[in-house]
Known about the structure:
There is one protein chain. The chain is α+β, with helices and mostly antiparallel strands and 352 residues long. The protein is 25% helix and 28% strand. It is built from ten helices and 15 strands. It has helices at residues 23-26, 46-54, 67-78, 92-99, 129-138, 152-163, 188-195, 234-240, 308-322, 338-341, and strands at 36-40, 59-64, 85-89, 105-111, 139-149, 168-170, 201-207, 225-229, 244-248, 252-262, 265-273, 278-287, 294-298, 329-334, 350-351. α4 packs across α5 (129-138). The radius of gyration is 24 Å and the shape is elongated.
Amino acid sequence: MPRPTRNVVPRLDAIHVPWPLVWGDLFPNHAPDAPRILEIGFGYGQFLRWLSKSQPESSILGIEIDSISLRKAEGACDRGELPNVRVMFARAETAFAHVFEPETLDEIHVNFPDPWFKTSHAQRRLIQRNTLDLMVSRLKPGGLFTLATDIRDYADMSAELLADTSGLTNTFAPEPWGWERTVGVMTKYEARGYQQGRPGHYFVYRRNDQPALDLPVIRELAMPHMKITQPLSPADLAAKFVPFKTQAEGGLYITYMAAFSKPDALLIEVFVVEPSIHQQVGLLVMLNPETGEFVVSLGSIGTPRPTDGVHFAVRKLTEWVVGLSPDAKIVGDYTRRHFIEIAASESENQPL
Length: 352
Ligand SMILES: C[S@@+](CC[C@H](N)C(=O)[O-])C[C@H]1O[C@@H](n2cnc3c(N)ncnc32)[C@H](O)[C@@H]1O
């Protein structure tokens, strides 16, 4: 018996959608001025369902990094249960920096963000200065921001940061938060918090008319590459490769993990961690038989996006190759010049 077919909505992820996002691609049947609503970390999706039902004319996007939550929500979308919802694999930090343009969101909702209790993990918390500044920039005038947490420390920390956020007005002022949910429905984590004696702290803010910081979408750059002349074969280079890491100012960390060679090319597996995006990419050192030069470039495995960090990774890999032989030299540089200016802040390459 053939299986019944059903509409499978294309999967979305922040690395592969256009930067900035074209909302009409996601919601082709919606009016261009339909309200745009974002939920960050929707988990098992109770709030997403509520949004879908209570605002049938809105374009609702849920973002998540957990595959099980995403699969569940994608299944519901495929079955037509959430007709005005799309979900996307995205870190909120990536989505705000690369995907959403300034003044394009009507509502942003965050329910029970991961608390990251340890001080050493504090930089992983969703609510922090940079992310809040981006949220303010992405909200339309009058837009709604809600946050709920059952962790008192997280509430205190958020209240302090929000009080310092001139672009948002607290609807519960002078109280920092409310003790009852006034927007939406109870979520899985919220219910668990109440069962375990941790009530919710509910923040409801409105975007006011104070100017936002100028934070345009970070678009992708041109593909980076560098040309070098050097005497070693790809196999020689692979034999000399030892995993190493490097970093630069502004929270850029690059780890060169492993090398694979074939007669005319070397492939290096690299993690590129930038504040806004984490990518695992393949960098290539390839012989051009016509010129005898080698080209160091970004491979296409996984369809990576050429960001600042990827340009930096190509440059540092080139420097590693050139450093292996006194006869090697750079003959062409098509990476972002910006990195030459910050070279003084770079650390030396370090073995892993
Ligand atoms: C504690 S759970 C809360 C889930 C749901 N909102 C609820 O209230 O039941 C936090 C959720 O946020 C997601 N998450 C964590 N960090 C994220 C990030 N940087 N961007 C998007 N989602 C994130 C997690 O995968 C998880 O599903």
